[in-house]
Each structure stands twice: as C-alpha cells, then as structure tokens.
User: Fold these one by one.
Assistant:
Number 1:
Amino acid sequence: MPSLSVRHLLGIKDLTREDIELIFETADTFKEVINRPIKKVPSLRDITIANVFFENSTRTRLSFELAEKRLSADVVNFSSSGSSVKKGETLLDTVNNILAMKVDMIVMRHSSPGAPHYLSKHIKANVVNAGDGTHEHPTQALLDAFSIREKLGSLEGKKIAIIGDILHSRVALSNIFCLQKLGAEVMVCGPITLIPKYIQELGVKVEYDVRKALQWCDVANVLRIQLERQQIKYFPSLREYSLYYGIDKALLDSLNKEIILMHPGPINRGVELTSDAADSQHSIILQQVENGVSVRMAVLFLLAQMNQ
Amino acid sequence: MPKRLILDSRLLDITITRLCQQLIENHDTFEQSVILGLQPKGVFLAKHIQSKLQELTGKNVPTGYLDTTFYRDDFRRRETPLLANTTHVPFIIENKKVILIDDVLFTGRSIRAALDAMIAFGRPHKVELLVLIDRKYSRDLPIEPHYVGQHVNTILSQRVLVEWTEKGATENAIWLVDTQDTTG
C-alpha cells in the first residue's frame, strides 16, 4: 500500500514523483467529495491542526482552513500580528506553547526561508510549509500541477512558462521542482533584473521576451510583482513593466494557438494581467483556487497517516 | 498458504442468479431502487448483479460505486495506510431504496462506514445489504445482511479471497485461505 515518503511537507524538493502522484490520486477523490451535497468527511476528527501565519495570507490560509474543516479536524488559527511574538517570544517557544495544547499538525507561513525546516527538527507534530519567504510554497505548486494535469491529462513533455517576478517568488521555485519531477519542460521569463543568476543550473530555459515565451509554451503561469519583498527598484515603473511584460487578451489572441493561463493570486489587474486576459476562456485561475482545497485535503489526509 | 474452494465459477453464477431472484421478489419493477457497490471489491459483484438483473427483467438498475475510506473508524490505527478509491454516484438517492453490495461481510465496520458515506448523498427511503459471503460469528457491530450468497464459518486467522476475471483471475472463484501455517 503506497504512502508518502516524508513526515512533513517542507518543500517539493523532498518529494518523489510517486509522492506527488499519490497526492494527486487522493486529491481526485477529495475533489469528488467537495462537490457532494454534504462536503465533509470525518477522517481527521481526532486531529487538531494549528494554522500559524507569521506573514499575511488570504487565499492559502482560507484554503487550508476549509480543507481542515472539510476533513473534520479541530482548527486553531494564530497570526503573529497582535500575538506574543511582538513581545519578543521566539518561533520555537511560540510553537511549543501551541503544541502544549495537544496540537497534531502545524501549517506554517513565515517570512524566513527554512523556518518550517528548523521547526520540523524540534517538534513531533507534522509540519506543512504554507510558504517560507522566497524559498518554497509546496501546496501552491502541487495545486498548479494538479490543475494542469486536470486540463491536459498529463504533464509529461508539456511546456510550462513561468512569467514575472522569478527572483522573489517561492511559487516559481516550487513549481520548477514539481513540474520537472512530473516530466514537464520549464521556462522562466521576466525582466533580466528579476531572473535569478544561475537559474539555468536548475535545468530551466530562460527567456526575456514575453511573446517568445508565450509562443513556446502550452501553459503560462503568470506571477505577481512582489513589491513588498523588493528593497530596491528592479524596473523603472509598474507602467513600464506592464507595457513589456503584461499579458492582455489581444496578445493571447495574436498567438493563434491554444494556451492555458494560470496565476497563483492575488492578481495585480492591469500590471501582469489585464482583466480581459484574466477572465478569458484561456484562464483556469478559479479552477486553481477550487483545486487548492482538494489538494490540501489530500496533503493533510496523507500526512496524518504518517504520524500514528 | 493452504486454501479451500468455497464457490467455483458455476456455483457462483447460480448464487448470483438466486440473489437476483430474491431482489426481484422484493423490488418488483425496481422503479425506486438503486445499487451501490462498495469499493474496491463490492463493485465487481454489483456489476454482475446489475447485468444479471438486466438479463432477467430487462431493467437497467442505476448502479454506483461508494468508497468508504474517509469514513472508516480505523484511520491512523492501522499498520498500512488507507488509500482512497473513486466514488461515483450518478443518481439521486433521496427517497430511493438503496441496495448496498459488498463481497464479504466480516466485522461490519465497512458497512457502518458505508452507511455514513451514503448519507452524504441524501436520505434513502430504505437501505438493504447484499453480500456474497457472510463470515458468521465475527461481527463487531449489530449489522446483518438481507441477502446472503453463502454463510461461512471462519476463524480470525482465515480470510476469504474473492477472485474475479475482471481482476485478472483465470475464472471467478471464492476461496477460504489460512493466513497462518498450522501444519507445524
């Protein structure tokens, strides 16, 4: 009987292809569950999960919370704003205090890369990384790949372009690992200042012309410009960025080909995507959000079995 | 592992025909009846029952598959992890007569989980249970079948093996297998 090869979900880098496929197969069954008249199953009724968010989040946090509740887990939410972290409590102390309340699983978002890895070495509970700085965001990559698989049947040999702020994006890194493990070809595209040096070492193609990237790919995963992580100016203005790297429906139509448009959210409408592109027939952005719940249910369900 | 044949292909066919005749007695036109096969192995029996009913009555009784993985009471208490199967219920079960079908009835815990799983799709008018093999004296819960292919006396160290050609077996057969070697 297959099971995950890991006790924690810290990053896609740690997963095997078999792990990812098992998550997808389990997510398929949960997708059916969340479309039933009664969208809840009692699988995790004896488990308590803490959502520990040291950084802002809307979509990921809501999605995790919904996944946990659909699985009948008890859920406690913690956010660092207004907490004792502001009084100087360490990460480990904060989490140990939460664990003292008999919590079985921690879903954590933190601005420091490696924070969930550090935590997993010091506590018994399962740790799920919901994003650690500019490092990884594994569940986002899983739901992105799951959405492509749903649309195209398989990722083997498919061409995926990740377009935008690659330098500051944890979604980009997790996506690169995930897509490559599943046999897809990956290209990154963006202004030269937002493409990390030596990214070719990861086996990805690099393109600076957005039209060429769109002509090459089957799927375009468009990323947000993360102004909150940018300490210096990487391009003259948002207006200029949108002029050279923004995608609109006219550009998509001019390609004269089938193309799938994705975005991890939140969208800066009018910057990386115009509204007519984001809401066009090419877009599967809302399917990504729906799949986020079933993929996270699958992750929690499979990890819960690793902590017996 | 020694094994003893309980039903061969011919006897199995006779048994399935008899079970269908019993269903016809109670469900008449099958106007308000639906079949739910329990994943994984009850599905094969459900398909056999459905096609035999079609042969005998000309009626195509709506048939779906129900997976009970997420409703089991032994989650995180097992040696081996649970793996979910597909649930496919392409009809409304509200106010219907549901015939739950499984291959082997043992402790009754799978059926308890199936009842929970089924309620997620609505409130049936009535639920009946059909099993091919009833392992007597092994129930953990007060659950009894309405239709039984064969009652078998078993001990805990034995298991019932149901082989279907659809699963790659050379012919349909049901065996009683000793999982412990008692020769020495």
Number 2:
Amino acid sequence: MEKTEGGASVALDRMIQPMLLLLILKKPAHGYELIQNFNAIHEDELVEPGTIYRNLRRMEKDGFVTSKWEAAESGPARRKYDITREGIIALREAAGKLERQKKQIEDFLAEYRNLAVEKGGDRP
Amino acid sequence: MKADPNALKILHAGALRKPIKECIHILWEKYPDLKVELDYAGSRACARAVAEGKIVDVIALADYQVFNDILIPRFVDTSFVFATDQMVLAFDEFSPESNQINEQNWMDVLPGNPAIKYARSDHRLDPCGYRTLILWQLAEQYYGRPGLYRELENGWSNLYPKSLDLAVALMEGKIDYGFEYLSVTKQMNLPYIQFPPQINLSDPRYAGYYARARVVIEGNYPGLETEILGAPIEFAVAIPRNSNQKVLAQEFIDILTGPRGEEVLEANGLIPC
C-alpha cells in the first residue's frame, strides 16, 4: 500500500482500486454494474466478482467511497457506491504515481531503442 | 408448538442456515434474552409459505427473483441483495471416480455411469435446483455438446428439497456428486470442482450469456407456469409487510449487511455485496 500525504492509501501495485475509483467518479454505481464495466475495460484480464466486491468494501472501510441502498424500478435494492473527498485525493495521487511510472517506462524504452540502433543487428 | 408473539421470526433459505445463526448470536450480544424462532426451506417454498399466510419478521432467500415472482408487491415492498455465490460440483473423497474427475471431464464422467449417483435439488422448491438446470443448459452450449442437458437431466438419481439436503446426502454417502453452492460446499468441507465463469452463474459480466438458458416451473394449474431466465446468483433479504417486529428485524438486517455480517458471510464462503 502506498501512503498518501493525507494519510489515505490506495493499492497501486494493482490497478483495481484506482480503476474502481475512476469508474465511480464517472458515475456512482452498484457493485454489479461496476463488475460489468470494469471487465469491459479489462477484457484480457478478467477480475473475479469477489475481488471487486472485496475491494469496494475495503475502500469503504478506508473512507474512499460510501454506499447506500438504492432500489431499482423493478429489481431489488443494491448497495450503490459514491466517491468521497478522500477517494478523490487518493485517485489523484494514484494518477500521479502512474504518470511517474509511465515516464520511467518511456525513458527505459527510449534508452533501449537507442542502444539497439547503436549496437545494430541482434544485440541487445 | 405455539408461536411466541414477541419472538423474532426468521425464515430463510437452507443455504443460509449457518451465517443466519451466527448473525443471531451477534444480535444476542445486544438482546441476550431475545427469543428467536428460526425456520428454513428451499427459497421458493419459503416464499410460498409467506404468501399463504405464515407470519415472519425477516425472510432471506437465495434468489431475489423469488421475491419478485411470489412476494412483491403484495407481501414485501423491496428486497435487498446482500451476497453472491457460484455453482460447483461437490463430492466426497469416497465418491467413485473422485480421483479422476475434473473441470474438463465431469460431463463425460457423470452421465451414463450406473456406478455413480449424482443429484440436484428440486427446481420447484429451491433456486439451487433451477440453477443446476440452467448450468446444464449453459454447459451444453459452452462445451459444444448437443444433448448434454437431456443426458444429465435423465440421469440424476435423487432430488432434494433444498441445497443443504444435497450436501448432507453427500456427507452421508447417499449420493456421490451434487450440484451445489460453493458456500454450502465450503461450510461442509466437501471437495468440489469449479466450473468456468461462463456457466457457474457467479459473474455479472456474463449476465447476457446466462439469460440464454431458461427453466419453466410448473404451476398448480395450467397457465400458471413461471419462466426463470439464467442470471448471476444474488441472495436477498426483506422484512415482510405483516412483520410484528419491524425494528428488531431491521436491526438483524443491519447486522447481516454490516461489517460483522460481511465477516460472517465471507467466513461461510459467500461473497457479501
């Protein structure tokens, strides 16, 4: 877990929590809907429903999201999640960390490509 | 036995037996003298009992659709989804072929083998029963095995009123394999085979795919059939309109759906949601 300046934390080693926070920021939603949307974005890496529900509960405990029961017109009531101020801060810091990681990867790839051109052929 | 008018009356799906009892123990921490009357059956049987006049304060079922089909709006206003699960194939270490069977070959091992007794619960009484029929239909499509549904449906040896009875029958050696909820299987420490998410009814991502399968439940009179479409498993709870203990019932539901209830559900193999 990565500590943020405000003491909030978000799991950055995996994208699940930042992705869920981003989806909830776009539109407050039920876990059921979030699973459908999450997996539509990450088609090549299917995340189990239990993992998403557990992360939602963890984020609620950490204060990043709140939930309340909301009844559908013809269906049952489900827990609907909304993002909190703490959640928005955590998401901003997660995005900052990803930016830094992206730059590190880009720098690494640029250096690798330069070296490959310099050395020519099949090295490195 | 005469019912106590002050007791909290809870009627629930058999699959929820253990977590409901554990949540009552949490409620007893606050109300140590509270009398609780607990009754359970297959979810459709539970709902029919309420529709026929049984008075309870909390009703917790294995499928929110049962509320919609039988109880809403006349007996219940809204149901609350609180947990999910998945279908698995449970067995016993002494079941024939138990050291050979796996996720890839179960559909070859079970049907047509007179040495193997496999069972399901009754689709007219219990969602685990119609979910089994839905799983078999989806398996026929998923594995590209025309006729698999009919083969499986023609070959079962026993039919039980609820999923819990299936698990008990497995433990007692009356059957060798049972199509069961993962939660009940874990509660009974039974070995099991998991099915892929495309057919195990666990994943909202496949809701559209699940809905290709359907089961018709015969009614008491012609024309009263109920059609059930495949859907992700969702357990739901409600307070019936004629409850005499609405405040206590709400306290119980707050426990079941709150942090301590979530721990109980998780420990019993369900996924709180």
